Amino acid sequence: MAATLCVVFALLASLHTCDGKLRFASYYGDHMVLQKSPERAVLWGYGPEGAQVTVSLFGLFKRQASLVTVTNGIWQVTLDPVAAGGPYNVTAKVQNDSATLTDVLFGDIWMCGGQSNMWFNMTQIFNATEELSVVAKYPYVRPFMVALNTSGIELMDLIEVEIPWSVPTASVVEEFSAVCWLFGRYMYETLKYPIGLVESCWGGTPVEVWSSSRALKRCQEVPVVDGPKKNSILWNSMIHPLLNMTIKGALWYQGEANAEYNQDKYNCSFPAMIDDWRMAFHQGSGGQTAPDFPFGFVQLSTYIKTSKDDGFPNIRWHQTADFGFVPNLRMKKTFMAVALDLPDATSPYGTIHPRDKQDVAYRLTLGARAVAYEEENVPFLGPFPKEIASTQMYVNITYDQAVSVTSSKDIFEVCCSDIWAPCGPKSLWLQTPIVGWDLTTIQVSAAVCQSSEVAAVRYAWRDWPCEFKACPVYSASWILPAPPFIINHSSWKGGIWKSY
């Protein structure tokens, strides 16, 4: 019976054989980072059925040991909390065998997922040679990369590892996610303790392949049972195996594929995926990963300069669950890097793949510092409207912070109506100029509505709304761009609209 169960568990564990040999699961290795205190790191692996495994942690100032029995070919322990630092050795031992991990650090683990802009590696970014030349100066930022594999069932362990845990060198990091690496490097410069980065992403993929069947059912997603968009095939093989890992948070850069696939469901499917990942990582780690762990993401950049398609603008809005900003009531403890002002018309990798990942990563770090680490006085949100006042002649948009403004004839648009009917992306929108501004308010003309009323206003609602770092509205420091928005007079819940 035990042998039969072992075969079943081996299948779930990515076909690792039940040979009775003692070893750690695939994503443990020398040079790895384990989650620091106050959380407790989880270790697991394989061993001879019924054997008593002693798992020991040895370091200069700390030593602890745990005893666990191998059940169905699997052993698992949860370490006592360990403060940031290292190095440590971790040894699993049975009577006649042992396995040891060396140079193990404790710090914060960040998952990095999504599609091709997260996959975009360090050799492809602006100033790649310079960026790679300083990699070795950050020995406590450790990368790990999951290999690309699919599965029709949820696996317990990874099928394959692309980059094992490594002390960073240029040759290792050049194939690693640029957004992920730069985020980790920038966070290390702030935190001054080890950062572990786990890359698990695949280009051209919609959110549905990264979501469990539970999450998809919440959004009434129609099951796709075959082909590259088969529901959950990457959740099964590249996320589910990692659930036992205690993590600090996750980063996400995805959405381009959903501009053409289930676009109208993304305002449900993306928040549902976040909720489900949080629940699954919390349960998988035995309650060590926070049930509301911080989740940062990149709002879509740009693709086609002359496009009139609403795909990218709609996804940007849906990425916030149609609030326009995060965190919000639907997406708590999230943070967002706005990237619509970072186009790259000459990218050799296609305009959908801008090479400036430094600004993207930096904006993510601001959100992480404020939301994940609760650092005070860290601005991370661009300006967003809190009050709109409209007359027959003007619309005054008052923001939640001081703004820096450049004049524009077409970045704002209004929708006109005599009956206050809600306006959507397919309604008739008319470009209207900025006619004035002060510290917190921008005034645009309402004259295009003539005898009608302004029923809605929107900002930067196009695929490619501005040139590089040249959108019309930024924070007072000119660092954070205002995110796009579409606000209806009749249904705005996020602020006050006054008509005169």
From TrEMBL:
Protein name: Sialic acid acetylesterase
Signal sequence bounds: 1-20
Gene Ontology molecular-function annotations: sialate O-acetylesterase activity
Species of origin: Maylandia zebra (zebra mbuna)
Pfam families: SASA (PF03629)
Keywords: Hydrolase, Signal
Any one of the GO BP annotations: carbohydrate metabolic process
InterPro entries reported in the protein's UniProt record: SASA, SGNH_hydro_sf, SIAE
Keyword Magnesium: no
Ranges of residues in domain Sialate O-acetylesterase: 108-302
